[in-house]
């Protein structure tokens, strides 16, 4: 018999309603604006906050950290849940900036599919490529929204070709744009051979519902007058070409990340956003099974299980708290239930379980496979940890740690604040934004910080100052490459290395080497035949 929740729906039905996806894009492609329009449709917010704008404007809901508001960029992933029609949607909004791609990678581990937002005037940009590769690693379905059609845009056929050649994924346009910029008249819906014609500058353009839209059949005599003879002729030629030369639509290929359905529109003016959302929800699946060693964990299984994919400290300045974000992989979570923390090897109760809307949150009594919950973390959780119930103990696959590309020596200005410094730098490191290393057998008065992107150094300085009241000195180091030493029994001090190679350890005592160039790596492996080096660390117990 199914457990019934407070809404009266059986657990299985609740899980079937779930859709959990991440939104990825290059900075400024309009990802955050699109997220907000989804939230508007779900009634989760009443007014879209523009990401960029005057100081008195609302900031985007998903950008909650002060430094994000100042810069107009997302530097941490946000989680938002809302209901739309019969669906319960969990959106994971990821940082667009390349310096925070590691956070995005971890977030994608928690998603079942991804929406890729592309700027119609710029096409596939560098960060889009990087994020797409991460999606590819997991073979997750990718849906493409080509945004900003209300501005001058590139030829849509050229955009399709670029997606295919640069990203190596086949495309299937679900709709097709009619004009662009001031001449953007709407889209052609290929499924039912109709035109959705839009009225620009509609006074309701930024309201909750779609701007004034008229649906007209492709063969309707009034269409030519509606969009003009030139655009009508272009559209007819385009339709013929699409039907004759494009790929067949294959849902199976979409599910395995080999074919991407493509939609055109404008998030800012709401052109095509709701049709995209509806089609996307129809095509995506409810939560899928997850691997745990050689097993697959069924989302509809009766036992609860989840893994930690993100840790965020100090979301609430008043409480100086720390939240562990968990993706529920199976069963039903109930407030107060006893769970088993696999890596900590102990039973516990998850304290203050919350669902979030960026910085606002509410305590939840229950949640289901596919949902994201935040729980209070007293410092026991690490990224990649597994939580389960019901006596069945297993661990989900770990989340790899990216190799940092930039390094700096960080020390304390005021030695009297050592305690705050150690606490601050450790907590920020546990979030995964930075990695901390020490000299062999060294203390914490001076540490080496490694980051994927240099902007993270700025964020570190800012957060230590504003959240922990600590000033630091930072000296950039010349190292560009890091390698984890896999063989634990090797004497690191006795290794034959070049003079500019540095021996270090992480906070768990794992030994590593820092190199200034690839030649030094080759020297190390050539002159130490037993030495085993790895480019990735693992979040393990």
Would you mind describing this structure in some detail?
This protein has 541 residues and is an alpha+beta fold. It folds into 3 domains: 23-72 and 114-283, P-loop containing nucleotide triphosphate hydrolases (Rossmann fold), CATH 3.40.50.300; 290-388, Translation factors (Elongation Factor Tu (Ef-tu), domain 3); 400-538, 2-Layer Sandwich (Alpha-Beta Plaits), CATH 3.30.70.3280. The protein contains 13 helices and 33 strands. The chain has an 8-stranded antiparallel beta sheet, covered by helices on one side. Strands 2-3-1-4-5-11-6 form a 7-stranded mixed beta sheet, sandwiched between helices. A hairpin with a 4-residue loop joins strand 30 (502-506) and strand 31. The relative contact order is 0.11.
Under the CATH scheme, which architecture of the largest domain would be assigned? 3-Layer(aba) Sandwich
- Which fold name fills CATH's third level, the topology of the largest domain? Rossmann fold
N-end to C-end Cα span: 36 Å
Task: Give the helix proportion (percent range).
Answer: 10-25%
CATH superfamily caption of the largest domain: P-loop containing nucleotide triphosphate hydrolases
CATH class of the largest domain: Alpha Beta
**Largest sheet descriptor:** 8 strands, antiparallel
Q: List low-pLDDT spans.
A: 1-6, 47-57, 61-65, 71-77, 202-210
* Count of DSSP H/I helices: 13
Q: For the largest beta sheet, what order do the strands appear in spatially? A: 28-25-27-26-30-31-29-32
Instruction: Count up the domains.
Output: 3
Number of strands: 33
Beta-strand residue percentage = 25-35%
Q: Radius of gyration over alpha carbons?
A: 25 Å
| Shape verdict | globular
| Helix/strand/pairing category | alpha+beta
Average predicted confidence as pLDDT: 82
């Amino acid at each position: 018999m199914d457990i019934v929740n407070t809404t009266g729906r059986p657990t299985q039905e609740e899980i079937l309603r779930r859709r959990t996806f991440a939104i990825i894009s290059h900075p400024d492609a309009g990802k955050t604006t699109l997220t907000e329009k989804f939230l508007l449709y779900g009634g989760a917010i009443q007014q879209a906050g523009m990401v960029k704008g005057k100081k008195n404007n609302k900031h985007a809901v998903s950008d909650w950290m002060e430094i994000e508001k100042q810069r107009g960029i997302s530097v941490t992933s946000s989680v938002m849940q809302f209901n739309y029609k019969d669906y319960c949607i969990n959106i994971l909004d990821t940082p667009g900036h390349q310096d925070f791609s590691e956070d995005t990678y971890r977030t994608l581990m928690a998603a079942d599919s991804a929406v890729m937002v592309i700027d119609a005037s710029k096409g596939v940009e560098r960060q889009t490529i990087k994020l797409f590769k991460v999606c590819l690693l997991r073979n997750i379905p990718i849906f493409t929204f080509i945004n900003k059609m209300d501005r001058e845009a590139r030829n849509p056929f050229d955009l399709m070709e670029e997606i295919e050649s640069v990203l190596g994924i086949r495309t299937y346009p679900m709709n097709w744009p009619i004009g662009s910029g001031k001449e953007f008249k709407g889209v052609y819906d290929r499924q039912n051979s109709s035109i959705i014609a839009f009225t620009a500058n509609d006074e309701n353009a930024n309201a909750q519902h779609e701007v004034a839209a008229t649906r007209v059949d492709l063969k309707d005599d009034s269409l030519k007058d509606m969009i003009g003879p030139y655009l009508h002729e272009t559209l007819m030629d385009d339709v013929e070409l699409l039907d004759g030369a494009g790929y067949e639509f294959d849902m199976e290929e979409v599910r395995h990340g080999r074919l991407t359905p493509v939609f055109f529109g404008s998030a800012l003016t709401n052109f095509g956003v709701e049709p995209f959302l509806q089609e996307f929800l129809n095509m995506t699946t409810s939560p899928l099974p997850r691997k745990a060693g050689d097993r697959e964990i069924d989302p509809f299984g009766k036992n609860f299980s989840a893994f930690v994919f993100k840790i965020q400290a100090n979301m609430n300045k008043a409480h100086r708290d720390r939240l562990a974000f968990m993706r529920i992989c199976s069963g039903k979570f109930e407030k107060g239930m006893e769970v088993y923390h696999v890596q900590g090897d102990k039973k516990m109760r998850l304290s203050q379980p919350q669902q979030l809307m960026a910085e606002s949150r509410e305590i939840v009594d229950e949640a289901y496979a596919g949902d994201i919950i935040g729980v209070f973390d007293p410092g026991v959780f690490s990224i990649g940890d597994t939580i389960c119930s019901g006596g069945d103990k297993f661990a989900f696959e770990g989340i790899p740690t990216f190799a940092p590309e930039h390094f700096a020596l960080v020390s304390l200005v005021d030695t009297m604040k050592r305690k705050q410094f150690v606490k601050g730098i450790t907590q920020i490191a546990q979030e995964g934004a930075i990695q901390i290393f020490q000299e062999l057998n060294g203390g914490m008065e001076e540490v080496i910080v490694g980051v994927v992107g240099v902007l993270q150094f700025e964020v570190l300085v800012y957060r230590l100052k504003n959240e922990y009241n600590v000033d630091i000195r930072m000296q950039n180091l010349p190292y560009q490459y890091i390698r984890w030493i896999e063989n634990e029994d090797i004497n690191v001090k006795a290794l034959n290395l070049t003079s500019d190679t540095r021996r270090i350890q992480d906070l768990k005592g794992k030994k590593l080497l820092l190199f200034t160039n690839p030649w030094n790596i080759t020297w190390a492996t050539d002159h130490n035949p037993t030495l085993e080096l790895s480019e990735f660390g693992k979040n393990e117990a």
